[in-house]
Amino acid sequence: MAENLLSAHSNVALARQPIVDSRLAVMGYELLYRKNAVAAQADVIDDVGATAQVMATSLFELGMENLVGTSKAFINFPRAYLLSSQWHAY
User: Fold this and answer.
1) Mapping DSSP to helix (H, G, I), strand (E, B) and coil, where does residue 72 land?
2) Is beta strand 14-20 parallel, antiparallel or unpaired with respect to 72-74?
3) Where are the beta strands (DSSP E) in 21-85?
4) Which superkingdom is the protein from (predicted)?
5) Domain residues of the chain, as ranges?
6) What is the pLDDT of residue 48?
7) What is the strand order of the sheet 14-20 is part of?
8) Tell me, what's the pLDDT at 36?
9) Are 36 and 13 in contact (CB under 8 A)?
C-alpha cells in the first residue's frame, strides 16, 4: 500500500516550513510551492499558479492530515489572487 501511495504522488512537489511560537513549539506549517522534489527554493514564474498548485496538491492529492496532522496550515496568497473578481460571490 505504501508503495502505491508513493508512486501516486511522485510528481508532487511541496515544502512545509514549521511555524513556531516563542517556546519553539510547532503551532503550524507554511505550505510552499516547489518546482520539483529537489528544488531548494520556489523558482516561481506565476505566483497565482503556484498558489493554486499548493492548494490543489494539499487538499486533493496529499491531504491536509498527511501534511500537517492536527496542526494549522498556512498558505501565502498573492495580492492578485485575493483581489481577482473570479473569487467574488455572485
Assistant:
1) strand
2) unpaired
3) 26-33, 72-74
4) Bacteria
5) 2-87
6) 77
7) 14-20, 26-33, 72-74
8) 66
9) yes
- Examine the pLDDT at 24 and tell me if it is beyond 70: yes
Over the stretch 32-61, which tens digit does the pLDDT of each residue have?
A: 877 667 767 677 777 777 788 888 888 888
Alpha carbons 51 and 80: distance in angstroms, whole number: 11
Q: How many Cβ atoms sit within 10 Å of the Cβ of residue 71?
A: 15
Return d(Cα 35, Cα 50) in angstroms, integer.
9
**Pair 34, 50: CB distance under 8 Å:** no
Amino acid at 27: M
Angstrom distance (rounded) from CA 10 to CA 68: 19
Please say whether the dihedral angle defined by the alpha carbons of residues 52, 10, 13 and 62, taken in this order, is positive or negative. Answer: positive
- Rounded to whole angstroms, how far apart are CA atoms 4 and 10? 10
pLDDT (0 to 100) of residue 89: 52
